[in-house]
């Protein structure tokens, strides 16, 4: 098993980095294809067969010039997502509500289906538009589609940006490789110290909102926002760190999103590669912002409804997407939408945007609309203030666990504040004299081993989408 959370992945990535610089540049894309196939097959061999067939059909259709072939390729690209994700959910719901017996395939969802679907769609559309020439070598299209650093959680790559990099004649650079390793370490810190420990409290809060008081429920929903951020951005740091060691420039996915002053700004900082994909392949084709205000608002809402549907077939995702589109449409009509992003007023904007994030992602996290309603009802009506005293009610085993949770959050927030001010700790550590540099390494490693929650942690949250 080569899951990113496993020690085997660290060994796998280290071996790949070594082989990468030993391999001749013209053959590196073949090495990447072999590595990606090994990675995917170790986790989901059935899903890899679906990916293989999907990529082959799209590759053939992209080589043709007629519009009918483009339509066929688009249908083939979207088929795994529509059939194995949404159809199965819809069939199960119809059977539960009306007793209808509909065919449901046994393979419910291939690994990374949401990610390789959007990537192969972007390749097909870019080739159809003439932005890139259709690739004649199927193996290169398969390499792009199965790229292991993006296949489970992104970031979304573009064929014309990724594949040329695999051919670049780069050489070993110890400083660059070490920088990549430090970024990987920061990603694992976010996951093991912050996200996995916050997950315990979040699960306890959402599983039975009626059993907890208002303060505990507020902590639970705020912690879910930080859990999701630490988990998702932690994965991104790991894969971008490996990419940096390979001298691959992969798209950034996060840029201190909780320091956004508007919802529009939030989506330029959160899941950036998905926002870019939605803008280029949904929002702009719908008409973008070069139209009447009502049409622009409708385009925004439609784009985020697509985002909600991409995340899942449940009504919670649909409502979440609608709300994010509606909030951005509303912002376009507020007279103080620019003033709120400057000076001291920006602090008000940051607080308001974070509140919107927490509110909407509570719906996103809930198992159903009724679960979300019960959670909000508990925040409004459940009395009490035991959030800092009765830690065991939140699933934490000791007071030390609670301290580690808040300490990890403080480190995460401090790191984002430094990044926002343009201060790179990695750069400062690399430029420090070697005694200070190694003291920093040892301190960070000891803190990681001491604070990490290494037992009971699950996979990455966005791997399910």
Q: What does this protein structure show overall?
A:
The structure is a single chain. α4 (67-98) packs antiparallel against α5. This protein has helices at residues 7-22, 28-43, 45-63, 67-98, 113-129, 138-145, 159-166, 174-207, 214-245, 263-266, 272-286, 293-311, 315-331, 345-365, 369-381, 399-420, 425-431, 434-451. The relative contact order is 0.10. Helix content is 68%, strand content 0%. The chain has 18 helices and no strands. It folds into two domains: 27-166, no CATH class; 178-262 and 337-460, no CATH class. The protein starts with 6 loop residues before the first helix and ends in a 14-residue tail after the last helix. The chain has 465 residues and is mainly alpha-helical.
Number of domains: 2
Please write the string of helix (H) and strand (E) elements: HHHHHHHHHHHHHHHHHH
Uncertain parts: 96-100
Shape: globular
What level of helicity do the residues show? 55-70%
Can you give the mean pLDDT?
A: 90
Number of helices: 18
The number of distinct β-strands equals 0
Computed CA radius of gyration, to the nearest angstrom: 23 Å
Span between N and C termini?
20 Å
Structural class label: mainly alpha
- Strand composition percent: under 5%
Biggest β-sheet strands, sense, barrel: none
């Amino acid at each position: 098993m080569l899951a990113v959370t496993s020690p085997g992945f660290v060994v796998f990535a280290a071996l790949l980095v070594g082989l990468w610089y030993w391999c001749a540049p013209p053959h590196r894309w073949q090495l990447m294809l072999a590595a990606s196939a090994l990675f995917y097959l170790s986790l989901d061999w059935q899903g890899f067969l679906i990916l293989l067939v999907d990529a082959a059909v799209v590759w053939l259709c992209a080589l043709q010039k007629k519009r009918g072939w483009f339509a066929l390729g688009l249908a083939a690209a979207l088929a795994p997502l529509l059939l194995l994700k949404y159809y199965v959910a819809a069939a199960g719901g119809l059977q539960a509500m009306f007793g209808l017996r509909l065919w449901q395939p046994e393979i419910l969802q291939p690994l990374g289906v949401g990610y390789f679907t959007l990537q192969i769609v972007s390749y097909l559309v870019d080739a159809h538009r003439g932005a890139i020439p259709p690739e004649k070598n199927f193996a290169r299209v398969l390499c792009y589609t199965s790229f292991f650093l993006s296949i489970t959680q992104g970031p979304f790559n573009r064929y014309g940006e990724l594949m040329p990099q695999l051919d670049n004649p780069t050489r070993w650079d110890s400083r660059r490789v070490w920088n990549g390793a430090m970024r990987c370490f920061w990603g694992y810190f976010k996951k093991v110290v912050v996200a996995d420990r916050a997950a315990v409290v979040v699960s306890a809060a959402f599983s039975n909102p009626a059993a907890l008081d208002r303060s505990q429920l507020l902590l639970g929903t705020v912690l879910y926002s930080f859990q999701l951020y630490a988990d998702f951005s932690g994965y991104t740091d790991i894969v971008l760190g490996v990419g940096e060691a390979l001298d691959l420039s992969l798209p950034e996915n996060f840029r201190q999103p909780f320091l956004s002053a508007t919802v529009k700004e939030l989506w330029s900082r959160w899941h950036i590669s998905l926002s870019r994909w939605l803008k280029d392949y949904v929002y702009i084709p719908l008409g973008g912002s070069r139209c009447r205000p009502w049409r622009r608002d409708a385009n925004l809402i439609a784009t985020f409804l697509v985002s909600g549907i991409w995340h899942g077939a449940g009504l919670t995702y649909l409502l979440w997407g609608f709300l994010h589109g509606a909030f951005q449409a509303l912002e376009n009509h507020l007279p103080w939408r620019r003033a709120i992003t400057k000076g001291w007023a920006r602090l008000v904007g940051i607080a308001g945007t974070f509140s919107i994030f927490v509110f909407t992602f509570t719906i996103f996290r809930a198992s159903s609309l009724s679960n979300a309603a019960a959670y909000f009802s508990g925040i409004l009506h459940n009395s009490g203030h035991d959030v800092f005293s009765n830690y065991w009610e939140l699933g934490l085993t000791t007071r030390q666990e609670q301290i580690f949770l808040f300490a990890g959050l403080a480190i995460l927030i401090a790191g984002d504040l430094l990044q926002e001010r343009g201060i790179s700790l990695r750069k400062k550590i690399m430029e420090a004299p070697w005694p200070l540099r190694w003291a920093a390494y040892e301190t960070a490693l000891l803190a990681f081993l001491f604070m990490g929650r290494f037992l009971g942690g699950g996979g990455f949250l966005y791997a399910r989408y």
